[in-house]
Amino acid sequence: MKQRTVFLTGLRANNNLHIGNYLGGIMPIVNMANSDNDSQINLFVPDLHSIISDYDTSKLQTAIFDNIKNSIAAGLPLSKDNVYIYRQSYIPAHSELTWILDCFSGFGELSRMIEFKEKSEKAGKSNVGVGLFNYPVLMASDILLYDTNYVPVGDDQRQHLEFARSIANKFNSKFGEIFVIPKSTKEHDSNFERDQALRIKDLQDPSKKMSKSTESEKGVIFLNDKPDIARAKIMSATTDSIGTINYDQDKQPGISNLFDIMQYFSNKSHDEIVSKYKGSTKYAEFKSDVADVVCQFLIQFQKNMANIDNQEIIDKLEFSEAEMNKQANKKLLSVQKAIGLR
Ligand code: TYM
What we know:
It is a single chain. By secondary structure, the chain is mainly α. 55% of the residues lie in helices and 5% in strands. It has helices at residues 19-35, 47-50, 57-73, 93-102, 107-111, 114-123, 130-144, 158-175, 185-191, 227-235, 253-266, 270-277, 283-306, 310-338, and strands at residues 6-10, 40-45, 83-87. It has a three-stranded parallel beta sheet. The radius of gyration is 21 Å and the shape is globular. Bound molecules: ligand 1. The site of ligand 1 has 25 residues, from β1, α1 and α7.
């Protein structure tokens, strides 16, 4: 029997999700789930990743359900049998495989992970938990347990994806063909019809990615922002003093970011959008058009959020978690056998 192609992604459930998460992580897999009946679509909540940094225990359950609702509001079709949504901590094989892969992961390689370096430098090495250091191994387990082929993620997660490929290759060459190797980042991009993975920038500082953990919320459009708040953020976005609109990521990163946002929310081609505004000197008019497109999206998205039935989510989670435990345990057993534990 031909193996199904597997698409898998997850979004951490700590803070409110923003439009970068939506465009980089949610939208590609939701589009795939709607258009593809043959592949297996796994969208999961990495709740064990949520406890890596400080968090409020009393709010975690709500955050997990809100996280799932975001994908449903984005159009994830719950009724399709090839679509699975599940919570990582409900599938113990994730943690088990993480320990095993830890034993084959290099300290040096993990020390070079950009996210670890940035966050540990900011907090001070002695103030970060081992979980932050170890996190790419858990992410590799999330991917490798299900024979995943494609992992749609934003640009910031590409290094972790490459780590998953590297540990899988290392493991296979030592113990035989146990893991499916997820596609290279280049193949991912072309499968999702992009030249490179998406990186939506902070509206106030377009040299940085839009991020949940940014100190100022002025540069971040959250999916639950009221449309007039989102509009104000876009209207005050940092641009440049060049005076003419152009798509140039080096010289005009702010404008280019707004072009990207407009393109992905309006479903038009890059060329179509750019040719409409290129050469114009009317920055405010351009920003206002971007705001229109984003607000239109937010209004519909938030309406969808308000109409989601919790019981439908619980039913889907229970169905998916039963099935995913079977798949994950099967893979875990083959790993345990290969390394001599069984
Ligand atoms: P997380 O929760 O930080 O981000 C979720 C998704 O959003 C993407 N993203 C962006 N895309 C474009 N522009 C941005 N500014 C932007 N900011 C975030 C991220 O790339 C990601 O796709 N480690 C993961 C969660 C995870 C995971 C996995 C993902 C755990 N296990 C296995 C895929 C497969 C994370 O923290 O993503």
